[in-house]
Amino acid sequence: MKIIVCVRQLFDTEAKIVVNAAGQIDRQGVNLIMNSYDEYAVEEGLKIKENTSGEVTIISVGSEETQSVLRQALAMGADKAIIIDAGVEEPDEFTVATILAKAIADLEYDIVLGGFKDTDNGFPQMVGRLAEALNIPVVNAVTKLEIENGKAVATHEVEGGKEVIEVPLPAVITAQKGLNEPRYPSMRGIMQAKKKPIQKLTVTELGLDQLAVAPKIKNIAFSLPPKRAVGKLIPGEVPEATRELVKLLREEVKII
Q: What is the pLDDT, as a whole number, of residue 95?
């Protein structure tokens, strides 16, 4: 079985974000990691590989530094990787989906996996856009997946419960927390990953021009939330303190 896993590199979720005077995020010294939901997708791809004697290809749109997360996936057990330079500074979900769809359409695949959203901005659109561009079914936020007889049976969360969906392959599946527990790369895997191939492509080599992949969204500026105000201690006995609290909630906080 041919398995493709889409991954994205982003800021470490524990990194301290610094916004400069121009309203842009300062990337200097920030640790970059794989999107955590994509890790679940990689692990699921490896499990399918082990059960079907398949092959896992990791694919990402990014820059030279994105190779670190590709090597991580290769060290976990993936077979090969593809990285595509978008040619734009800040590709949005439309750009990424358009590029990946063009690249994946030229590959052999039975299933495409990815995280159901990005942990940095919370955007959930990319993989769904990819499925539409490839004209294949998609099941989102999957917590259980079974592959058999040319179909995928996926359990995903809905409000108040779970839903089980059956789709024919090829299909796109997005991974949710709870689907599995991603493995740690072994020392042997890390050493082997150094020898596994990473193919580097550009949008031009895929037959796309810059107009076709131009982002639809542009970040103008970022700002940090205001610092949380220091708590206020209201002294006095309960009746007096209660009256003062109500007064503050009405006049200062303005919530009653």
A: 94
